[in-house]
Amino acid sequence: MFENLQALPPDPILALTPAFRADPNPRKIDLGAGVYKDEQGNTPVMRAVKQAESELLAGQRSKAYVGPAGDRGFNEAMASLAFGDELLASLGERRVSLQTPGGCGGLRLAAEFLAQANPDATVWLSDPTWPNHRPLLGAARLGMESYPYYDFGSHSVRFDAMLDRLSAAAAGDVLLLHGCCHNPCGADLAAEQWRAVRDLALDKGLVVLIDMAYQGLGDGLERDVAGVRMLAESLPELLLVSSCSKNFGLYRERTGALSAICASASVAKAAASRLAATARANWSMPPDHGAAVVRTIMENPALRADWETELAEVRGRINGLRTSLAQALREAGLSRDFGFIEREKGMFSFLGVTPEQAEILVSRYSIYLVKSGRINIAGINRANIGYLADSLAKLLAEG
Ligand code: LMR
Questions:
Q1: Who lines ligand 1 at CB under 6 A?
Q2: Which of these, 70, 161, 321, 346, has the minimum number of CB atoms within 10 Å of its CB?
Q3: CA-CA distance, 105 to 111, in Å (whole number)?
Q4: E-state strands within 213-364
Q5: What average pLDDT does the segment 311-318 reach?
Q6: What is the mean pLDDT of residues 274-282?
Q7: Confidence label for 399 from pLDDT (cuts 50, 70 and 90)
Q8: Residue identifier of the C-alpha nearest atom 1 of ligand 1
Q9: Which atom of ligand 1 is nearest to the CA of 32?
């Protein structure tokens, strides 16, 4: 019966990596998948991670199961990083956290949990959003709608249109937000917009689900979660998915967490049992290594300080590249204003090219980017920025 199955089109982001590797052009540039790269084009293991790994290797005495909810120390560290200790204390037993296989595992778990609580819920996704949101959340058979988010003309959030569209959401629907460093557009909500979203969620009885994959890569570990904390303080229910892929560089270790804030401690107890049972039915127990590394770093003040320093270096490099790219594009004689690249946050921005132009950048110039025109800023370096700017100038001159 397997012959009934048709092959699916390749993943729009992941397919770029092997294509880039196979390209013999020495000038090739990889601006595809959201993976941090240093000036030499490498994706390094962070110093604190290496140190924690050697401590774990020397000290680990057992490989026994961690249990469906994962490593408790890791879960608490992740909750503290996202919510801060003061808010965490005031949430008390209304909050539960579980370790998940990456942010994707957290999103999938969140979707199944939401479908158990309200099978009729519609999930509202930003337009545009990360292409894997639909398959991940849709797998739980929840309805999907989108709300306008990014204005490609002004390179800003279409906030009025977003609120207008969300007025059609029903009580019990789910509003998916990006915690910071919006993927793919890099445009985040301003403080007053977070407040308006909070008021809307309260007013309409929406459950907010936050995907936080880039904490620390925008303005800093604390500033990046200001909106998340504002919502967590005042909404009766909230789901937060945190990923350690980018800020700890643990991509392949599949390290993430899901925190649920519930209306009361007794609801949270039921939620914890549901989440653990749903995890058990999916992957049984999460992989240990990445979470053990993060816990080791977070429990050791010297390692934690070193991690924060290196993360600040990563953030500084990305923000510096944003400025350099905007400048290189100005110097390449492009009449279009690329100043928005400097204002946007995190790994991604749209270059403002059509899907056809994106394909030409790949096929003619060996510049690999997602067809939507999204680029990974961290793939740029001093050696390739000139070629990138010149190639884009040539392409756009063709009209
Ligand atoms: C991206 O958006 O490029 C990253 O989050 C990698 C992925 O899994 O898509």
A1: 13, 33-34, 130, 132, 183
A2: 161
A3: 10
A4: 238-243, 255-261, 348-350
A5: 98
A6: 98
A7: confident
A8: 34
A9: 3
In degrees and rounded to multiples of 5, residue 92 shows phi and psi of 50, -130
Q: What is the mean pLDDT of residues 200-213?
A: 98
Is domain 65-299 annotated with CATH 1.20.58.100? no
User: Whose CA is closest to atom 5 on ligand 1?
Assistant: 34
How far does residue 183's CA lie from ligand 1's centre (Å)?
A: 8
- What is the mean predicted confidence (pLDDT) over 379-398? 96
CA of 176 to the centre of ligand 1 (A): 17
Residues 6 or more apart whose CB falls under 8 angstroms from that of 218 comprise 180, 181, 188, 224, 315, 345, 346
* Atom number in ligand 1 closest to CA 245: 5
- Closest approach atom of ligand 1 to CA 132: 9
Q: Note whether 276 and 96 are within 8 A (CB).
A: no
- Count CB-CB contacts under 10 A for residue 86: 10
CA 107 – CA 279 distance, rounded (Å) = 12
CA 376 to ligand 1 center in whole angstroms: 10
Q: How far is the CA of 34 from the centre of ligand 1 (A)?
A: 5
The residue to mutate among 37, 130, 255, 375, having the most atoms of ligand 1 within 8 angstroms of its beta carbon, is 130
> CA 248, 253, 254, 259: dihedral to nearest 10 degrees?
-50
Q: What is the pTM of this model?
A: 0.97
Active site residues: 130, 211, 246
Identify any residues that bridge with 368 across adjacent strands, giving them in sequence order.
30
User: Taking residues 371-379, what's their average pLDDT?
Assistant: 97
| Model confidence at 335: pLDDT above 90 | no
Residue 263 pLDDT? 98
Strand 174-178, strand 29-30: pairing: unpaired
To test the pocket of ligand 1, the residue of 31, 126, 129, 132 to mutate (highest count of ligand atoms within 8 Å of its CB) is 132
CB count within 10 Å of CB 286 equals: 28
| pLDDT tens-digit readout, 19-61 | 999 999 999 999 999 999 999 999 999 999 999 999 999 999 9
The third-level CATH classification (topology) of the domain covering 11-45+303-397 is Aspartate Aminotransferase, domain 1 (3.90.1150)
In this structure, which residue's CA is closest to atom 4 in ligand 1?
A: 34
d(CA 321, CA 327): 10
